[in-house]
Amino acid sequence: MVNTDKNQSLHHISRLILALLDNGSDKQIYLFFHRYHEADIAEALKALSLDQKISFFKKINIEYAADVIEVLNFEDQQELFQQFKTEQAAKYIEEMDKDDAADLLESLYEADEIHASDIIRALKPDDAQDLQTLLSYSESTAGAIMTSDFVQIPENLTVAEALEEFRRQNPPQDESSFYIYITSYNQKLVGYTSIRDLLMADGTLKVHDIRYENPVSVTVDMDQEDVARIIQKYNLSAVPVVNTYTSIVGIITVDDIVDVVIEEATEDIYKLSGTGDIREDRLLYGKLSFPVISRLPWLCLTIFAGTIASYIITIFSNVFSSTTITLALVLSFVPLLMGLAGNIGNQSSTIIVRGLSTGVISLSQAFKIVFRELLVGLTIGSILAGSFYFVLIFLNYTHVIALLIALSMVVTMFLATFIGSVLPLTFKRFGIDPAVASAPFISSTLDIVVQLVYFAITLQIVSRIVL
After folding, report:
1. What pLDDT score does 2 carry?
2. Inter-helix orientation angle 98-111/113-122, to 10°
3. 345 class by beta-carbon count within 10 Å (0-12 exposed, 13-18 middle, 19+ buried)
4. 458 and 327 Cβ atoms separated by less than 8 Å
5. What is the number of structural domains in the chain?
6. Is residue 157 part of a domain?
7. Does 259 have pLDDT greater than 90?
8. 117: closest CA among 126, 125, 105?
9. Would the pLDDT of 185 be above 50?
10. Residue 41: pLDDT above 90?
11. Mean pLDDT (whole number) for 341-352
């Protein structure tokens, strides 16, 4: 019912957009944008043709257009900006929030570097410099996701002067205007206050008398995941970003952190599934080569590991000899053992990777965490092995077969939890993303390990029966 109502609402907005294109007045456009959220307008635009979209953006004013463009996905943004003239595109960029504009320019560089460079040259000098600075920071760092739109006032002003300075700077109408950052004479961050505190304070007081000292801040090169944890820990709506001289150069707002959390979670999910390219727009809508190239390497690893596993089976078949147990019976339990080991190994890996990404697990706790996972694997393996032993006896299997499978189950599941927990921690220790220890990697490793262990135990038990 909710989806039906939403679809009807979007269809209604699409019809209104078409009506505005035909004969909409400035007042009607004003009322339209004050009635509907730009996110809904952007979603409704998907039902229109490219020419209709372009006509819509040309008809509305720059401020409204920038608000809608900011919430479009990268694919739609690129499609539009490839059609806009350079001067027109530059006007939209100038009106957008700096961090959103930088993200858009970065995606445009990937699609058409010449057009993106022309747009930057067409920008006002100050805007161009700000955006080039944001683009210069390494990907996934605080500098790359911050915005340079923030309010900064000297500490020696009075409250009345600070309010006047606030008006002069004309900050954007969003959460970046809530905090007001206070700097010393040499531009170093020394505190912060809020617009509420300024409005409620005596106008004759000095700003440094009402400021909050020791503000929580992050450095430009801090990883975006660490920034997200800091904002979560201190329950902030924005956090200042400082350079090596502790001068404030930007802020990161909570809406950007929500994007970071979603991006990081998506990245981990894709890596855990063995997908190298974690850009959803490229995987779902880009060239066919993107999903093929990103998914092919791990599948090649699976083929390689499967070939080794097949070779192990061949060798075992040649050396196996028993009058009491048939080869077919022994091999029939291989899928069961491989499935159990793969599942519990990936469970351990997922728990460790998630704990590392959220900060719940630190490398100093590595031994304790691995030991705990080994106990978990041993306990689960023992419970399942003991239960399955009696199931096999009930199904009229011999005690030898039941013992062989139960023992193999305990050992392989113990080793699976060891591999699943140690690999992510090892990768983290050497500065490699622990999510690389993904399901295909662990599964391929365990396919080989499980067969080696199972066949080794089988040969030992068979040799003792013969003796």
Report:
1. 44
2. 140
3. buried
4. no
5. 3
6. yes
7. no
8. 105
9. yes
10. yes
11. 88
And the tokens for 291? 């999903």
- Predicted confidence at residue 362, as pLDDT, reads 78
The answer as to whether 368 is a domain residue is: yes
Span of 268-282, 370-384, 392-406 with lowest mean pLDDT: 268-282
pLDDT (0 to 100) of residue 5: 63
Instruction: Give tens-digit pLDDT for 93-151.
Output: 999 988 889 888 988 887 788 888 999 999 999 889 989 988 888 888 999 889 888 88
Q: Tokens 């970065």, residue? A: 106
77 and 172 assigned to the same domain: no
Mean pLDDT for the stretch of residues 417-437: 80
> What is the separation of C-alpha 327 from the centre of its chain, rounded to a whole number of angstroms?
47
Work out whether strand 238-242 and strand 151-154 pair parallel, antiparallel, or are unpaired: unpaired
Q: Classify residue 170 by its DSSP letter.
A: -
Task: Please give the C-alpha separations between residue 299 and each of 271, 310, 450, in angstroms, as whole numbers.
Answer: 13, 16, 20
Q: Which residues contact 247 (CB under 8 A, 6 or more apart)?
A: 183, 186, 187, 188, 189
Tokens of 19: 């009506």
Residue 141 DSSP one-character state: B
- For residue 127, the domain's CATH number is 1.25.60.10
d(CA 388, CA 375): 20
pTM of the model: 0.63
Q: Are 30 and 122 members of one domain?
A: yes
331 and 460 belong to one structural domain: yes
DSSP labels for 391-455? HHHHTT--HHHHHHHHHHHHHHHHHHHHHHHHHHHHHHHTT--GGGS-HHHHHHHHHHHHHHHHH
Task: Say if residue 96 is in the same domain as residue 13.
Answer: yes
Pairwise CA distance, residues 372 & 370, whole Å? 5
